[in-house]
Write a structure and sequence with these properties.
The chain is an alpha/beta fold. The protein contains 13 helices and nine strands.
């Protein structure tokens, strides 16, 4: 495991080790002084070519808590804006002593290209609608914490329902791959216009177009952001209709309470379109783990940095 570019690249053992490390990193984050010297003297370049708050800040906090130096780079204000090629930009970063690169870009496969050019540990912070592996890992950690589990094997057989714009969601794609890899049952709920073709055949998930008893009986229900920046307003008639049929709204919350499913955990990768895919009453309810996902993201990204660091150090010593 030289990079973290896709869930396809990591084994069950890798996931197990990263989750174990994440528990240790959570303990560090609870200390009065949140700092350890693990990556002292190392430099992390954060290349975010799409808007981001949670992911970029989470990676930066993770790196700094491990005592790494961080450099933020975007296409605005850099030599890329002046016309410099990507290859030359990456070579420049490598010459400046980068030890890690974290990249987010609208182009699918872009982090793979950077990893091939740079030949230094590269982490995919989200590439178009393709993948977002650290989001899937932090979601998995959050689910385990909410159920009081410490071993990855203990979550096998649980059910997660993912509702919303599956087609345009890198969170859904990485999540489905990871959750299936560790033995969860995955249900996706989506309109026909936001559902990828052949998803059931390729990923082995159960498909539903609307909520039903099986969905309401899930252990976890995750709402996805309606990604208008990727598809405009052309795949749904209106925000109101989307909320009525696929939103986690007050009626959804009433159904949960009616079934006395107080143990169901509500999740959302953020940022939330409140009033569309999720309403405040659900997002801020006692069942919600949304802001815990944000906190757990720092621990998971610390674990990923540490895991890649030790793996690559071992590789270089051979």
């Amino acid at each position: 495991m030289h990079h973290l570019l896709s869930i396809d690249d990591i084994s069950f053992s890798d996931v197990e080790n990263i989750i174990d490390l994440s528990f240790s990193m959570l303990e560090i984050l609870q200390r009065d002084i949140k700092k350890v010297p693990t990556l002292r003297g190392r430099t992390v370049f954060l290349m975010f070519f799409e808007p981001s708050t949670r992911t970029r800040v989470s990676f930066e906090l993770a790196a700094k808590t491990l005592s790494a130096d961080t450099i933020n780079l975007s296409d605005k204000g850099s030599s890329i804006e002046k016309g410099e090629s990507l290859v030359d930009t990456i070579k420049t970063i490598k010459s400046l002593g980068a030890d890690f690169i974290v990249v987010r870009h609208k182009g699918e496969g872009f982090p793979h290209l950077i990893a091939d050019i740079a030949k230094i540990p590269t982490i995919n912070g989200g590439d178009g609608k393709n993948e977002h592996p650290t989001q899937a890992l932090l979601d998995l950690l959050t689910m385990m914490l909410k159920k009081g589990l410490r071993k990855l094997s203990e979550i096998k057989g649980a059910t997660i329902s993912i509702v919303g714009d599956i087609m345009h969601s890198r969170v859904a794609r990485s999540g489905i791959k990871l959750f299936s890899k560790v033995g969860l049952n995955v249900i996706v709920i989506s309109s026909h216009t936001t559902l990828p073709k052949d998803i059931e055949k390729f990923y082995g998930v159960k498909i539903k177009n609307f909520f039903d008893d099986e969905v309401f009986s899930s252990d976890f229900i995750m709402a996805l952001r309606l990604q208008k920046e990727r598809h405009g307003n052309f795949i749904i008639p209106s925000d109101e209709e989307y909320n009525e049929f696929w939103g986690l709204n007050q009626r959804f919350l009433d159904e949960i309470k009616k079934r006395k499913k107080d143990s169901v955990i509500i999740m959302h990768p953020g940022p939330m379109n409140l009033g569309i895919e999720i309403e405040p009453a659900v997002a801020y309810s006692d069942s919600s783990a949304i802001f815990e996902q944000v906190r757990n993201g720092v621990a998971v990204r610390m674990a990923v940095f540490y895991y890649l660091f030790t793996k690559n150090a071992k590789r270089e010593s051979l």
